[in-house]
Amino acid sequence: MRFIPCALEQRGMGGEADMSDVALEREVMSLFEDLLDVPETERGAWIEAHTSGRPALRTRLVALETADRSGSLPTGGAINALEDAVIPERIGAYKIIERIGRGGMGAVYRAARETGDFERTVAIKVIKPGLFTPDVVERFQRERQILAALAHPNIARLYDGGQTEDGAPYIIMEFVSGQPLLQWAEARSLPRAERIRIFRDICAAVAFAHAHLIVHRDLTPANVLITDDGVVKLIDFGIAKAADTNTTSPNDAAVAAMTMTPGYGAPERLISAQVSTSADVFSLGRLLQDLLRPDRRDKELRAIIARASATDPSERYASVEALMADIEAWRNARPVAAYSGARIYALRKFAARHGRAVLAGCATFILLATALGFTLAANVRAERARLQAEARFQETREIANSLLFEVFDEVSAIPGSTNARERLARTGLSYLEALAQDESAPLEVRVETAVGFVRLSQVVGGGQAGELGRFSDAAELLAEAERIISPLHAAYPNDPAVARAMTQVLLEQSGASLYSHNEVALAREQAVRAAQIIEPYARQDAKAARAYIYAIRALGDTEGWEENFEAARDQHQRAEAFAAGLPQALRDDPAVMGARAANIRLLGESYHRLGMTEEARAAIDAAVTYTRAVRDGAPQNPAFVRGLTVALWYRAVVHRTNQRDALARESIEEAMANARQLRERDPNDAGALRLVATVGEVYAQILADARRFDESFVLGEEVVAAQRDLVVRAEGAAGARRTLAVTLMTNGGNFYNGGQFDRACERWREALGIFTGLEREGVLAETDRTRSMASAQDYVARSCNPPHAGLGSNL
Amino acid sequence: MSQSAATPAADQKQLLAEHYDEFRRVARGVLNGDAQALQLQPTDLAHAAAIKIFSLNRIDLQGRTHFLSLSARIMRQILMDEVRRVRAAKRQAPPVTTFWPGEENAALDLEALDAALSKLETIDADRARLVEQRFFAGLTIEEIAAAEGKSESTLKRQWRAARAWLIHELEQR
Fold it and tell me: I need a surface site. Which of A106, A350, A510, A688 has the fewest CB within 10 A?
């Protein structure tokens, strides 16, 4: 009988219980909990005694007790479609004998060939109709052929496959009469040596499949059968797929995740469909664990298992063979590769261990995920660190710094990592911040936090390589850095680390003020302060020397921005003289060399603009030589590639102006190839996009000089598109719009010279519109007003009503 | 909770907020399958999310338990949001089913269970939370007992009461 309390019946489902019900229900549950301690035979009397005079309470208590005893929860009506399905009589040429299994994916039948000369018993797996989309089914049909060719004594053979009348895909495979692995082993109390033998057979079969580009993907104890003769048979390649990335579809990950057996599926299967053989290594590790059940003393065996089933695929054995080799070593009491006394994992070692070759392949996510994993682990640690030892605090801090600096730099070398780096910086930083909030946090931690904000701002929109072009976000981050470092600098004016950090913040701000926001006076002020602060330490170490060179260079840059080339030249000469006067060890430091090369490039620009041709050429050649040397020292480092590209670009500019067309072309071609390479490494990298635009603009002009207009126009379109994209990324920042306008002017010039006056005027009008807008907002620089904007007005007035060759034959 | 005494509540919230997207990605990854009918186990989802977020091998047990316990509510919310989203997006979407921990033979309608659990919440928040921790975060009674400083036998009894109450509630549907 079923007890239905009136209150619930009337209330129906889903609503909130009202107050009197709440009290009643609470009482019922707490009574029920007491009831659990009462022996079953006495329960009737107990209920009577505890609910006397309260029928509603009694009814509910009895209902709960009945529900508890009923032992299972009611099903929700969404039972497997196949549960009730009639067993088919035949599938293909086979007559169904019986159903031998049923699972989430479908059912398995034993069947025999009806016709033909020989008797053959097979297993037929029917996949639930509609479980897969047509393209997954199609993929399966394709792969069936590979699977069918997989002939190995320990792998159940796949014979055929097809589709039933109602559209359910099916697979016909070798019928294996046997027991699942663990059951079989337990039933026989199998000795360990024998279990190891079995495991090696399993490994051999999986290795064989891998050699044929088949990954099992679902190795579980249930999918390893042992025949009555003790022979291993791997079954159910139902979701196995050819280890070829071409065949993956977006649905694969979902299917993989859906069919994952708890505990056995490799974690990355939830992330990506592109599962490699490493997923099977993971499952083998888990199988080994369940098969051998090592205890505390089996240190080496446990190390083998841990390595095989490491969360991070790159930490696992590289292949099944490597796993087998380690097991062999363990059996023969030779040293085991996995057991190297691994203790606490140091993130730094991780970064060091993973060569760039590995990273460049596919591991951005893995590295990042591991790094973030550490942050969290560290985070939990940090929470306790506040109450616990200083050592913990230091450990945490090291990890955070490692994330922000070492791993960050390492990840920078990976193509496509700009977004990832932002996350990395953010996570590392959030952690440092938490530490810095501690009242007793040492000064260094606060300094590191400020520098962390600078780092983050560089990724978000620092105007250099590997950044996202979000200028306003970057500005906020820099403001945060300043809020942290300024009071510290006031309190500790003589601390070198504080001074360095303060300089870094100011220089970054100066760059942002100049390039992103077109605020020259502010940029100059920031650069002057930076130079003052770092000067006392400038000869002490490479970092300080570099910061000082950058500070003076930034000063020169603000002059050059306003076309005060004499003042600019003086500053750049000053920086160069300083760099040249440094001790040899500092001079040869890559950080100093990079800063020096960048400064010489700008020095060359000043000479060039002042008409000092030979000096310009010498300086720019020196810049190219320097940057090339720096680049060759670390050819994968995008910052170094960028440095060289900028130098080459400017050499092309100088040569072009001096009509040395062949030399100009040579430099610009190399620069363009580098810039494109940087862009392809990471489409999110606004710095690379900007470089393509800057270099491309000059390249287009050089092509137009050579009257190669068709090529020039195509390139011009690419350049303008890139500048528009940058404006969007910068959310319309003034600096980005100004750059677009200048580009449009140049691009219009190319069209004009190529005789396409319509398109030239279209460009110039747009540029004029942008300049006018900037003027209205009060952010148009004076030089832009008097030069670029004036040119735009002039060109439009003289040549565009209607568009014609009003400016002479060539611009 | 023994841990939370040492950790400002705001920090914990922050921690969870940071990983909210991660949870959702995992839930979405599973629910976006081709299947016409889906069966999933929130416990596995929670663990998968945890694996994604941190390496279980390298965080100590206390930290893991604590984090999962904190995540239970969020996991539930995200999962149910995703279930509703998937169901809304598909015409004639079938129910998403699950099974009660340890009772793998009977499929349960996940939304019905969620509704019943919400109702239990209005009656008894502690018992409902226990179900959340076990069912949506995959914690064992032992782990919850250790994390919350409660006795295992009390929790076991509460668990059984909650289960009986939910069974009865679902039978009324």
Answer: A350
SS3 A264: coil
Task: Give the separation between CA A759 and CA A751, rounded to whole angstroms.
Answer: 6
Which residues on neighbouring strands pair with residue A9, listed in sequence order?
none
Contact between A553 and A534 (Cβ < 8 Å): no
Regarding beta strands B38-39 and A178-180, do their DSSP bridges make them parallel or antiparallel, or are they unpaired?
unpaired
- pLDDT tens figures, B131-153: 988 888 777 888 888 878 889 89
State how far the Cα of A611 lies from the Cα of A341, in Å rounded to an integer: 67
DSSP E strands: which ranges in A61-148? 90-91, 94-102, 106-113, 121-127
Provide CB contacts within 8 A for B64, sequence distance 6+: B50, B54, B56
Taking the C-alpha atoms of residue B173 and residue B161, their distance in angstroms, rounded to an integer, is 19
**Helix-, strand-, coil-residue percentages of chain A, each rounded to 5:** 65, 5, 30
Average pLDDT over chain B reads 71
B165 contacts in chain A (CB < 8 Å): 25, 28-29, 64, 67
For residue A381, give the 3-state DSSP assignment.
helix
Q: Report the distance separating Cα A18 and Cα A320, nearest Å.
A: 61
Cα A506 to Cα A30, A192, A491, A499, distances in angstroms:
65, 67, 17, 10
To the question of pTM greater than 0.90 for the whole model, the response is: no
Q: Please indicate if any CB of chain A lies within 8 Å of the CB of B144.
A: no
The one-letter code for the residue type at A581 is G
Three-state SS at A634? coil
Mutate to test the interface with B, among A270, A368, A427, A439 (most CBs of B within 10 A): A270
**Burial readout A161-171 (b: 16 or more C-beta within 10 A, e: otherwise):** bebbeeebbbb
pLDDT per position as a tens digit, A175-226: 888 888 888 888 888 888 899 999 999 999 998 887 766 777 778 887 898 9
Confirm or reject contact between A14 and chain B (CB < 8 A): yes
Sign of CA dihedral B37, B41, B44, B50: positive
CB atoms within 10 A of CB A13: 13
Q: What is d(CA A486, CA A732) in angstroms, rounded to the nearest whole number?
A: 30
Distance from CA of B84 to the nearest CA of A (A): 16
Alpha-carbon span A198 to A186, nearest angstrom: 13
- Backbone angles phi and psi of B132, in degrees to 5: -60, -45
For B107, which residue in chain A has the nearest alpha carbon? A75
Secondary structure element (H or E) that encloses residue B148, with its range? helix B141-148
Query: Using CB atoms and an 8 Å cut-off, which of residues 318-347 of chain A contact chain B?
Result: 345
Q: Do B33 and A64 touch (CB under 8 A)?
A: no
pLDDT digits (tens, 9 = 90+) for A475-505: 888 888 898 899 889 988 888 889 999 999 9
pLDDT exceeds cutoff 60 at A381: no
Q: Interface pTM (ipTM) of the complex?
A: 0.80
Q: Are A783 and A790 in contact (CB under 8 A)?
A: no
Most confident among A245-259, A272-286, A412-426 (mean pLDDT): A272-286
Q: What span, in angstroms and rounded, lies between the C-alpha atoms of A333 and A341?
A: 16
- Measured CA to CA, the distance from residue B38 to residue B110 in angstroms comes to 10
| Of B113, B29, B107, the residue nearest A81 (C-alpha) | B107
Inter-CA distances, A726 with A465, A593, A642, Å? 14, 29, 18
Phi-psi region of A164 (alpha: psi -120 to 50; beta: other; left: phi over 0): beta
Three-class SS state of A675: helix
CB A373 within 8 A of CB B53: yes
Burial class (CB in 10 A: 0-12, 13-18, 19+), A778: exposed
User: What is d(CA A353, CA A348) in angstroms, rounded to the nearest whole number?
Assistant: 9
Residues, chain A:
811
